[in-house]
Amino acid sequence: MQKKSIKVTFYLLLAFALLLGVAGCAPQAAPAAEEPAAEEPAAPVVEKNKFEGVELTLASMTDQYVTAFRVLVPRFTEETGIKITLDELGYVDLYQKLTADFVGKTAQYDLMTVDIVWSGEYAANLYTLPLDDFMARDEADLNLDDIMPVAWTLGEYEGKHWAYPMAGYANVLNYRKDVFEAAGIEPPKTQEELLAAAQQLTEGEQYGIALLGAKGSAVAQDYMAFVQQHGGSILDADGKVALNTPENAEILEFFGELFKYAPPGSTDYWWDQRETAFRSGIVAMMEGWSIARAGYENPEISSVVGLADVTAAPVSEGMEPKYGFGGWGIGINASSTQLKQEAAWEFIKWLASEEIQKEWVKNDGAPIRRSTLTDPELVAMYPWFPLMLESFEKGDGDYRPRIPEYSIIQDALGTYVNAFLVGQETAESALQKAQEQVEANTK
Predict the structure, then answer these.
(1) What are the pLDDT digits (tens) for 27-42?
(2) CA distance linking residue 409 with residue 235, whole number of Å
(3) Going from the N-terminus, what domains does the chain have, and what CATH number goes with each?
């Protein structure tokens, strides 16, 4: 009886253990989901905004496109979380501040607007980051074939891209329709006709043409534009600096002749004074960059609303038309951190996209894409776009040589072309002294 009791107890205990084992293996009810901690953002948000909190500084020339930056930079920050501080600087200050930042490797600026003529210098000194790896990686997103071929000169040097095309300018002739109609003449197509028109249209308080004459980069760049339009060059066939040639001296004499029909004080004109002369209505003609054209229809800054028009820049008689091209690229500081460089590239891609380019142009930016120059809405707003397209297709982005020595050449011409204009030098002696200054600083 005792053995039977023990046996029953054993089986009861075994059954109870088996029941516990089955219960332990049974699926358990899922616990209620817990709310994530407030300080831990969900993973998709982090992935989507991988640049959230990154801060960049953009150094920009105070050209008209700076208005577009003011409008679009906040939109980019809202879309990406990348904050961009805009530092607006004049031409000389921009060059000097960027140079100091590059040489000191202080990376105060992560992005910068790069004048077309700085490409070689920045490349030779490794100041800006070559963008080719970024471009190859993201080629599917860039639609590179839509960018005008000449626009690549805005940052290319020896096959690499040290800045990305941002704002393309065509050198054009702006003129007063009413003044030409009253005089019964057509806008000039050749340099010879330009001089004749300037002389004919100078009378009393009305002057024939506005020019850049101020000592420094202004007069140097204006003179080089006229060298290009006469079919000349400041480099020889071997690519060496050749300022003091008989052809260049003749072109300098022509340039000086035009100043007889420019407003008093023109030998002190920088870009803003030249623009003011045309906008105020005291001159009949002005060669200049196409980005300024829209401003002539703005009554807040222009007295020639409805009276101005634009045509191709005149070239020397018999010369195959080729038009001066310039403008700005946008570069990335080679000394910035890798994260900031990646964020800066995101901004460049975004800014250069077809969608944003349309907004860029509507806010005083300048085009780089064929699709922008042919967009029906934009052509209706800016009827001179077909002319710009032609100028871009026949554009010469090399007449101001994009070589490391460019700034030295510009300084020399800026000093001695002005000296010629104010009567301190002959054309020959001015160019000879400019040549000597270049050679002394490039040994």
Answers:
(1) 333 334 444 443 433 3
(2) 10
(3) 52-168+326-393 (3.40.190.10), 170-324+399-440 (3.40.190.10)
